[in-house]
Design brief:
about 325 residues; Beta-Lactamase; elongated; 17 strands
Length: about 325
């Protein structure tokens, strides 16, 4: 299905375009009505977020930004280490959700903020307003928090409906909701929809996961430097990958106790012991240098590819030894 292909290729296309064209070219030839590989806009960004039209997006306020994607207004964005690509939400998710037999399907976050309704006539962005006769607070703090499916019956626009929710486990802050009429609930078709709904969730999960996988494979693994990221390093050897601002974007697995993957770091968060330069200034110089990283002294050698820096490190001392 073309909608599946759209999701699968978003990260791959972003990497492809980022590698071959500069940001000026990309922004010159796209608009809301003129697409490049389904993207309507490209922009660079800083650690805080980005701006598009009248929207100012803060990564700190977006639960999904840790997955390198997010939603705002009618848009869905993905980003890599250098640029952001913006698409229309309906382009990415519309055809997939349309395969459900539900009266409406929608995507929301863990706090009940609705990003997208399949039924375009519905403008409500808050779950508690959409299902106003149900107290959704308990669901948010219990079932949704624990990753459990939820089902309840209520009235929407004076019609009795059943509402089901499925937690998308690979992305614990993203949920799929479906609204069924009671006629469907009382028929054999409902059984089909429950089964299909589960499959639909896994389709969304799989495609989003594949987007990230394809991007990392396409953008990093096809070169010598990319291969280093997945090398199984010895206990005392490490790899740190930085963007052009010195932000830590990837580390070898044996560094997880030093740099936790869920925390954002800049290399200047760590002290350069070799001279009076900051850590990033030492990296720009290109000479080996020693960093104090949580009571570990690690000597790094600098390799540069494009706008990325690859730091190959060896443990000098551990826990003050």
């Amino acid at each position: 299905d073309s909608s599946y292909a759209t999701i699968q290729t978003l990260f791959e296309d972003l990497a492809y375009l980022n590698e071959r064209f500069d940001i000026g070219y990309l922004t010159q030839y796209v608009s809301d009505n003129a697409y490049i590989r389904r993207f309507v806009y490209f922009c660079e960004y800083d650690n805080e977020g980005f701006e598009y039209l009248d929207f100012k997006i803060s990564f700190a306020d977006d639960d999904l930004a840790i997955y390198n994607f997010g939603f705002f207004d009618q848009y869905f964005y993905v980003f890599n280490e250098e640029i952001i690509g913006i698409s229309k939400i309906n382009t990415v998710f519309g055809q997939i959700l349309a395969q459900s037999s539900a009266n409406n399907a929608f995507l929301m976050n863990k706090n009940g903020l609705i990003y997208f309704h399949l039924d375009e006539r519905i403008a409500t962005k808050a779950l508690h307003e959409y299902v106003s006769k149900v107290n959704t607070t308990d669901y948010m703090t219990n079932e949704f928090k624990n990753g459990e499916p939820v089902y309840f019956e209520t009235k929407i626009d004076n019609n009795l409906v059943g509402v089901s929710f499925y937690h998308i486990k690979d992305y614990p802050f993203l949920y799929l909701g479906q609204v069924f009429s009671i006629e469907i609930l009382n028929s054999e078709l409902f059984k089909h929809n429950v089964i299909y709904g589960t499959i639909l969730v896994f389709v969304v999960i799989s495609n989003l996961f594949l987007l990230i996988f394809l991007y990392r494979k396409y953008y990093l693994q096809d070169s010598f430097f990319g291969g280093l990221v997945n090398t199984k390093f010895k206990t005392n050897s490490f790899l740190v990958v930085l963007n052009k601002h010195g932000d830590v974007i990837r580390v070898s697995r044996n560094m997880n106790d030093i740099i936790h993957h869920s925390t954002k770091y800049n290399i200047n968060d760590f002290k350069n012991l070799s001279n009076t330069l900051t850590a990033f200034e030492a990296i720009i110089e290109g000479n080996p240098f020693d960093l104090m990283m949580k009571e570990n002294i690690i000597r790094f050698h600098v390799l540069k590819k494009g706008k990325l820096f690859y730091l190959l490190g060896e443990l000098i001392t551990n826990d003050g030894e």
